[in-house]
């Protein structure tokens, strides 16, 4: 299969981290790496520059791509890499790459060409609209960047939307020879402690454990080589996922939001995770 992994770059340190992440993933999956950089060349945008300034913009853009290609080649010398300099806005350009790509990778902060600040316009827009995996690579102090933990985490809920996320998480765990931690967080009903309407929280927890086991049965049989930890806990899903993110190489979450704008389409759990995660996050929309 001629799989393609797309990574957006802008010359920032975060983009360099994204290229390294994408190169490693391409090597694991036997995929081709496509490095893309966007330049706004509308008449309005280019009118802000002199003729010499426009030439400088294009030379800088080509340099961003060549530097990123060098990073990928040094990181994983055996992978196939191609570069594309595209015209348009960063978010729209990345969305346009989704059709033939296995995943899209963006840095967690940037300079402008692909400013993937974790809840900035580009990452929110792309993760909220593109079907399939969009990986936001966190970079900086306290993010665990460059550290291998040997664990992939995936959030499990009761929605069918989590099935693509489970497929991606199991595949990532298999390719990395890692353990997969499946986090299923639940909260008791608001009236659980009202006198006369007490709920047996232990029984609720046991029922949630059975739900998680049933949801994972088919995936366990499909990926028998992947060690699975079923982590069922009484907590808010965002808190549960953030608490394990620092010890994970990747946190995978599904998103079933249906709003008109990217931030709404991501859903509250996904947005909360992107705000607080201590490592890289993959958002997988069905």
CATH architectural category of the largest domain: 3-Layer(aba) Sandwich
Terminal residue distance: 21 Å
Taken together, the total number of domains comes to: 2
The strand order across the widest sheet is: 3-2-1-4-5-10-9-6-7-8
Main structural class: alpha/beta
Radius of gyration: 20 Å
Apparent shape: elongated
Order of helical and strand elements: EHEHHEHEHEEHEHEHEHHE
CATH class of the largest domain: Alpha Beta
Look up the CATH topology of the largest domain: Rossmann fold
What topology does this entry show?
Layout: E1 4-8, H1 13-29, E2 32-39, H2 43-46, H3 51-75, E3 81-87, H4 90-96, E4 103-107, H5 121-129, E5 132-137, E6 151-155, H6 162-176, E7 179-186, H7 201-222, E8 228-234, H8 237-245, E9 250-254, H9 262-266, H10 268-276, E10 281-285
Parallel strand pairs: 1-2, 1-4, 2-3, 4-5, 6-7, 6-9, 7-8, 9-10
Antiparallel strand pairs: 5-10
Protein name: Universal stress protein UspA
Domain UspA: 1-138, 151-285
InterPro entries: Rossmann-like_a/b/a_fold, Universal_stress_UspA, UspA
How would you explain this protein's 3D organization?
The chain has 286 residues and is α/β, with parallel strands linked by helices. It folds into 2 domains: 4-137, HUPs (Rossmann fold, 3-Layer(aba) Sandwich), CATH 3.40.50; 151-285, Rossmann fold, CATH 3.40.50.12370. Helices cover 43% and strands 21% of the residues. It is built from 10 helices and 10 strands. The chain has helices at residues 13-29, 43-46, 51-75, 90-96, 121-129, 162-176, 201-222, 237-245, 262-266, 268-276, and strands at 4-8, 32-39, 81-87, 103-107, 132-137, 151-155, 179-186, 228-234, 250-254, 281-285. Strands 3-2-1-4-5-10-9-6-7-8 form a 10-stranded mixed sheet, with helices on both faces. α1 crosses α3 (51-75) and α4 packs parallel to α5 (121-129). The longest helix is centred in the first third of the chain and has 25 residues, at 51-75. The two termini are 21 Å apart. This is Universal stress protein UspA. Pfam families: Usp (PF00582). Residues 1-138, 151-285 form the UspA domain. Belongs to the universal stress protein A family.
């Amino acid at each position: 299969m001629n799989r393609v992994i797309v990574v957006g770059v802008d010359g920032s340190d975060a983009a360099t981290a994204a290229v390294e992440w994408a190169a490693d993933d391409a090597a694991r999956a036997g995929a081709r790496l496509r490095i893309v950089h966007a330049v706004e060349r509308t008449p309005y945008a280019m009118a802000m520059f002199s003729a010499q300034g426009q030439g400088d913009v294009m030379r800088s853009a080509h340099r961003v791509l060549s530097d990123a290609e060098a990073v990928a080649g040094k990181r994983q010398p055996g992978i196939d890499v191609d570069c594309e300099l595209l015209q348009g806005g960063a978010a729209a350009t990345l969305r346009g790459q989704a059709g033939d790509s296995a995943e899209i990778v963006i840095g967690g902060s940037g300079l402008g060409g692909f400013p993937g600040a974790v809840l900035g316009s580009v990452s929110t827009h792309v993760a909220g609209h593109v079907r399939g995996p969009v990986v936001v690579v966190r970079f900086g102090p306290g993010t665990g960047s460059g550290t291998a933990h040997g664990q992939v985490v995936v959030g499990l809920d009761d929605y069918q939307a989590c099935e693509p996320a489970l497929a991606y998480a199991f595949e990532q765990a298999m390719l990395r020879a890692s353990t997969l931690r499946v986090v299923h967080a639940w909260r008791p009903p608001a009236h659980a402690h009202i006198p006369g309407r007490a709920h047996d929280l232990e029984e609720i927890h046991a029922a949630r454990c059975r739900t998680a086991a049933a949801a994972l049965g088919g995936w366990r049989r499909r990926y028998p080589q992947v060690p699975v930890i079923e982590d069922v806990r009484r907590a808010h899903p965002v808190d549960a996922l953030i608490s394990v993110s620092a010890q994970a190489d990747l946190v995978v979450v599904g998103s079933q939001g249906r709003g008109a704008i990217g931030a709404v389409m991501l859903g509250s759990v996904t947005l909360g995770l992107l705000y607080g995660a201590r490592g890289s996050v993959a958002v997988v929309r069905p």
